[in-house]
Amino acid sequence: MQYLRLMAAATLAVTGLSCGLFEPRQAEAPTQPGLDFQPALDPASVISNLIAAVGQKSETNYIRCFTDPTTSTRTFTFTPSSEGVAVYGSIFANWGRSEELNYFRNLHARSGPTAYSNLQLTEKSAPSITADSVVYYYDYVFQFEHSDKTFPTTAQGSLIFTVVPDNSGLWAIYRWVDLKTTSAISWSMFKGKFSS
User: Which terminus of the chain, N or C, has less C-beta within 10 A?
Assistant: First the structure.
């Protein structure tokens, strides 16, 4: 009898303690976008990080793809397309890393949380490799949905990236040349439009 009482008490205790054991748990907070940035130990990682940063609309990871004056002796430069120069010439006269970040922030601010963004790069030729740089030549399709109904959401063209290592051996884009090669607007137009 004593044994049965102990078993009953143990069963009640376990049952009481296990309340909620099979109930759904609290949902975890979603992962912050852009947390999958890979250290750019090689030039190809820079390109992968840039594509991911655009798709995730991650301002932090986007700007990490460009040479940083605190870790590199080389200053990021951007050469706009002929179309970009014609429309936004004065804006591009002093374009650097801070302007690059400012444009991307402004574009992101004018895009809803579920708005689509994507970057497709198609290699036009094999990279040109030297002792201290790699030059990539791509056709691109840049898509970024935003709230300005008077401005396109897609840019197409070609670009040249020169990727270099910094003082710690991590790679970043040092020079970007944009080329208008299609009837669509070039990426430079996005930069000029959303520069402020």
Answer: N
